[in-house]
Design brief:
single chain, about 260 residues, alpha+beta, Jelly Rolls, Arc Repressor Mutant, subunit A, five-stranded antiparallel sheet, four-stranded antiparallel sheet, 11 helices
C-alpha cells in the first residue's frame, strides 16, 4: 500500500486527458473540488467523498472552479481492493461520513508526526474499511427518463461545484444557490436528494465542517473566527454541528489534527 498527498495545480475548466489508471486506487478529497470522468461516468468530487479506480480505467479531469484542490490517493493491491470493493458499484464516486473524514485526516496527521509503520498500517486499514462501507451510496437517478436524469445530474454537479468553491458558496442561502445554478429552491432540493440520497442541508454542513477541519490543519487556531467564516451563528453552533457530523467537538479535533492538546 502507498499513500500520496496530492495538490492539483491544473486550471483547465474543460476536460483534459485521457489518461489510464495503472493500479487500484482509493482517492479521498480533502478540499476544493473537480470533475472526473472515469470509464464513461462523470461526477463532481468534493470533500464529502472521493472515487475508486481500477487498472485500465480511462479517466479525464476538469477544474471548473479552479486549481488548488487537495486529495489523498491510496494505492492498494488487487486482493485488498477485491476484498473490500468487489462487485460493480452503483457509482465510482462515493461519499464518506464525518467520522470517516476525521479518520482520514488523523491518519495524515499521524504520518506527519512520524508515527511508526505499525500504527499507520492499522489506521489505514480502518480507513479503508470505513470507505468500503460507504462505497456505492452515491446513486444514479434511475427513476427518471435518460434526458431528465442527465439534466438532474448536471444540476447536482453544478450545485456541488458552487458549494465546493469555498466560503462564498457555503454562505449562500438556498434561494441564492438555486439562482446560481438556474433552478428553483424546491426543484434543486428535490433533485439533489433524489440523485445523492442526502439533503442539501446535510451536504452543505458536511462541507462546512470539513472546511473548518482543513483550516485547522493549515494552522488556523481560532474556532470563533472559523465559525464566523463558515456562516455558523456562533462558536456554539459550530460545536453542535461538528459533534453531530463527526462525534467530536472542534477543540478536540484541533488537538488530533495539529498534535496539540
Amino acid at each position: 500500500m502507498a499513500v500520496e498527498d496530492i495538490l492539483c495545480c491544473e486550471d483547465s475548466s474543460g476536460f483534459v486527458g485521457p489518461g489510464h489508471a495503472d493500479g487500484y486506487t482509493v482517492v479521498l478529497a480533502r478540499s476544493g473540488g473537480y470533475l472526473r470522468r472515469i470509464a464513461g461516468e462523470e461526477f463532481f468530487v468534493d470533500a464529502s467523498g472521493g472515487y475508486l479506480t481500477r487498472p485500465g480505467d480511462e479517466h479525464r479531469v476538469a477544474h471548473p472552479i479552479g486549481p488548488g484542490d487537495r486529495s489523498t490517493e491510496i494505492r492498494i493491491g488487487a486482493e485488498l481492493f477485491t476484498d473490500r470493493f468487489d462487485g460493480p458499484p452503483l457509482s465510482r464516486r462515493f461519499t464518506v461520513t464525518g467520522t470517516t473524514d476525521v479518520h482520514h485526516r488523523a491518519l495524515l496527521a499521524a504520518a506527519r508526526r512520524g508515527a511508526d509503520e505499525f500504527e499507520l498500517g492499522e489506521r489505514l486499514h480502518r480507513l479503508l474499511d470505513d470507505v468500503a462501507a460507504s462505497a456505492g451510496h452515491w446513486r444514479t437517478d434511475t427513476g427518471s427518463r435518460p434526458a431528465a436524469a442527465r439534466a438532474h445530474a448536471r444540476l447536482v454537479r453544478d450545485a456541488c461545484a458552487v458549494l465546493a468553491a469555498g466560503v462564498p458558496g457555503l454562505r449562500l442561502s438556498l434561494e441564492e444557490l438555486a439562482r446560481a445554478v438556474g433552478g428553483s429552491p424546491h426543484h434543486l432540493s428535490r433533485v439533489f436528494r433524489a440523485v445523492t440520497g442526502t439533503t442539501l442541508t446535510h451536504h452543505r454542513n458536511e462541507l462546512r465542517i470539513r472546511g473548518v477541519l482543513h483550516a485547522l490543519e493549515e494552522g488556523e487556531d481560532s474556532l470563533r473566527t472559523l465559525a464566523y467564516a463558515y456562516g455558523f451563528a456562533d462558536q456554539a453552533h459550530l460545536t453542535r454541528v461538528c459533534r453531530s457530523h463527526t462525534g467530536c467537538v472542534p477543540s478536540v479535533l484541533r488537538g488530533v489534527l495539529t498534535d496539540r492538546a
